[in-house]
Design a protein that fits this description.
Number of strands: 9
Order of helices and strands: HEEEHEEHHHEHEHEEHH
Distance between the termini: 58 Å
CATH architecture: 3-Layer(aba) Sandwich
CATH superfamily: P-loop containing nucleotide triphosphate hydrolases
Shape: globular
Strand order of the largest sheet: 5-6-7-3-8-9
CATH topology: Rossmann fold
Helix content: 25-40%
Length: 237
């Protein structure tokens, strides 16, 4: 006889419902090619979470799906708040000033007051009337992050923070991101090929390979995981 009682929610769904951002069994296809195979992740309110993996693993596909650029074939996306996306390659508007780039981030809500952004990244204050296309890569990354923050998001998803940037610049931007998380409680999903950076500044992480989540856990534990060290940290001790 079939029970008429409702099925108990899965563990994934229970976690997802308590999170600011989550996916449950997410599948994404490009034509006949399956890019994401049943991916389930979650980010709690105020949490910093990393997603690491090699090129072509599905990291950017996941972020683009969370942002609505890609449509999932199946599965669920839950966002209990406002999500802002810092895309791979910064994608600033090169002919607009820094100030105008920031203001565009608030076009769907949020204050157009840019002063808090210059408090977060004081370097941008003196550049506010410069065209974004003339800035260095690090300065453009700051603009891209601040443009996303202008929407006053509950969670910010950053795609390849370190791409094309000098280590000292990356370290400085990462420090500001950590300060933002601590002071404002903004949750962060950091999608990053630089595993050392990502695992050092986040509390929890996922490893994605070939469109599947292979490992997950505390970032400190993954830093010590022999498989992660061999694949992403050059086998360093």
């Amino acid at each position: 006889m079939k029970s008429t009682e409702p099925a108990a929610p899965s563990a994934d769904m229970s976690v997802a419902n308590d999170s600011v951002l989550a996916t449950v069994d997410l599948v994404v296809r490009y034509g006949a090619v399956v890019a994401l195979h049943g991916v389930s992740i979650h980010v709690a309110k105020g949490e910093m979470v990393a997603l690491i993996g090699p090129n072509g693993a599905g990291k950017s596909t996941l972020l683009n799906t969370l942002s609505g650029i890609n449509r999932p074939a199946s599965g669920r996306i839950l966002c209990n708040g406002k999500l802002a996306h810092v895309p791979e390659g910064r994608q600033v508007f090169p002919d607009l000033t820094v100030e105008d780039n920031l203001c565009l981030g608030a076009y769907r809500g949020g204050s157009r007051d840019t002063a808090p952004m210059y408090d977060l990244f004081p370097q941008l204050q003196r550049l506010r009337n410069r065209r974004a296309g003339g800035l260095s890569g690090g300065e453009q990354q700051m603009v891209a992050i601040c443009r996303a923050l202008m929407a006053n998001p509950d969670v910010i998803a950053v795609d390849e923070l370190s791409q094309g940037l000098a280590p000292l610049v990356v370290s400085d931007i990462a420090r500001h991101l950590v300060e933002l998380n601590k002071q404002n409680g903004t949750a962060v999903l950091l999608v990053e090929q630089n595993a050392q950076l990502a695992l050092n500044i986040t509390s929890r992480a996922y490893v994605i390979e070939n469109g599947c989540i292979g490992l997950e856990g505390r970032s400190s534990d993954l830093l010590r995981n022999p498989a992660v060290r061999a694949a992403y940290l050059g086998g360093i001790r």
